C-alpha cells in the first residue's frame, strides 16, 4: 500500500462525508466515515510494521492467547492514539494524518507546524485516556 493510494481513499471517503447534513443521523454517519479513514491509515501503518508499545501487531497476536486483549481493546480511540503517536515519529504517517485532517477540517488544520504541536500536546496530556 502506497501513500498516494491511501490519499485517494481519503478523498473518496471525504466526497461522501462532505455532503452529509447536520442532523443527528448525519453526524453518526460522518463518524462512521471518519472511522473508515482511521482504518485505511492504520492498515497502511500495519503494512509498514509500525507499532506503538506492541500495538496493534503484537497485541493482535497476544489476543489469540489472552482474553484481556478482546475486540473492545482494539477500539477506535486506541487506533486514533496509535496514529497520532506514529505521526510524531514517521514522516509518512504525519503526511497522511495531516492530509486527512486538513481535507476534512481545513478551517482547523491549515498549518503543519501547528498540527504537529497539537499532536504533541494531545499525547503529553493524554487526551485519549487510553493506554496501549
Q: Name the beta content range.
A: under 5%
* Proportion in helices: 55-70%
Q: How would a crystallographer describe the biggest sheet?
A: none
Helix count from the secondary structure assignment: 6
* Structural class by sheet pairing and helices: mainly alpha
Poorly predicted runs are: none
Summarize the structure.
The protein is mainly alpha-helical. The chain has six helices and no strands.
List keywords for this structure.
mainly alpha; globular; 6 helices; 132 residues
Verbal overview:
This protein is mainly alpha-helical and 132 residues long. The chain has helices at 3-18, 24-47, 57-63, 76-87, 91-104, 112-125. The longest helix is centred in the first third of the chain and has 24 residues, at 24-47. It is globular, with a radius of gyration of 15 Å.
What is this structure's SSE topology?
Blueprint (H helix, E strand, L loop, with lengths): L2 H16 L5 H24 L9 H7 L12 H12 L3 H14 L7 H14 L7
